[in-house]
What does this fold into?
Amino acid sequence: MNYTKNRMAKVLCLIAVWACSVSIGNAQNASNNQHSFSVKEAEQYAIDHNRSMLNASLDVKKAEANRWQSIATMLPQVNASLDYSNYCGYKLSMNGMEIPMNPSGTVGLTAALALSGTQIVSAVVSKIALQMAQISTNQNDQAIRSQVRILYTSILAMEQTMSLLDSSLNNLKNLYTITENSYLAGALEQTDVDQLAIQVASMQNSINASGRSLEMLYNSMRLQMGLDVNAEITLTDDISTLIDNQACENLLEQPFNLNNNYNYQLLAKSTELSKKQVTLTTMGVLPTISAYYQYSAKTYFGKDQGFNMTPPNMVGLSVKIPIFSSAMYAMQIKASRLDYQKQLNSFQDAEDGLRIQERQLKYNLRSALEDYNTQRDNIDVSRRVFESIGRKFEHGASSAMELTQASTSLITAQTNYIQATINLLSAQTELENLLNQ
It folds into this structure.
């Protein structure tokens, strides 16, 4: 009996330990899947975990490897060799003499160096390619931060307006209840009740649509930040700290320095690369110099030395000079110069285009700022009008039609406010990216 009790106690103890471990594991998983971010923290997290950003970093490392590969072709190359020969008892006859071809082994060491103008220019070209990869990484960093900031602000704007609509819906439902009771008492018409019912349904539909849009924004943010699809995100910043009228005004006064723009930097490097291609093609007509040193040690595995024509030390030097190529090199040089001229023309067009883009983006930001201020004030006015007419309707001082119009105006104001918020942030972000602020 005591044995059975002890065994049962052990089983219960094991079950309790297992339950605690499962509970702790679930709590840890839930904790790992919950995240709180300020906008700066969200941007940095995206930079650290976004897969396109990780690929951009790999591109830089690849460009660095290619650069050192180009440099390595101009450095000495050393190779070792080990050979074994067995002529199976064959003897070489020469002037009546037989020379045994005994089994032998040879250890060799060769150091070689080749240098040409093409190799030198290729190393320079690979350095430019590395610089372009680094600029692209910075540009990708900028784009990811901008996308996260826009999503962050859009979510806050959507949540803010959903809260406003929830409050308005509660007011509508209360008015609907009052109206329905008045109809039952014979004080109002059935049409008054029906109109309010439609408005309640319309506002509920607007809230539901906003909720679906909000979830889509959160999903986009999870994707940008490299988070699990089921991760819970909490945003700690307030929308008022992210949209700053004065910051927009200061941005509009910023001068445009082309050298700070990543697109301009890439175009400049691309033009420099095109120029180096001309030099690279020209180097094809210059001599190629190569030199080598070879050391060999041969052994006959304990037998007499046979016929040995392998020198222990050997050095060599060669110079390759192109003389005639049927104008092939001349045409290649001409083609590369024409490509460089085309690149210069494209570069000038791009420079003019960036200056025009600066003017357009500043115009867009100014317009977006004005529209945002208008829609922000409009949604506040629409809310106060709706609440005022609701109070009047409750006391019989306004009609159901007036309340319906006020409700529709509030929903429209909410939609316009969200769109104005997104437009303002997009315009601000585009100009910041252009100016690289």
Summary: The CA atoms of residues 178 and 394 lie 7 Å apart. DSSP finds ten helices and eight strands in the chain. The longest helix spans residues 117-184. The chain has a mean pLDDT of 80.
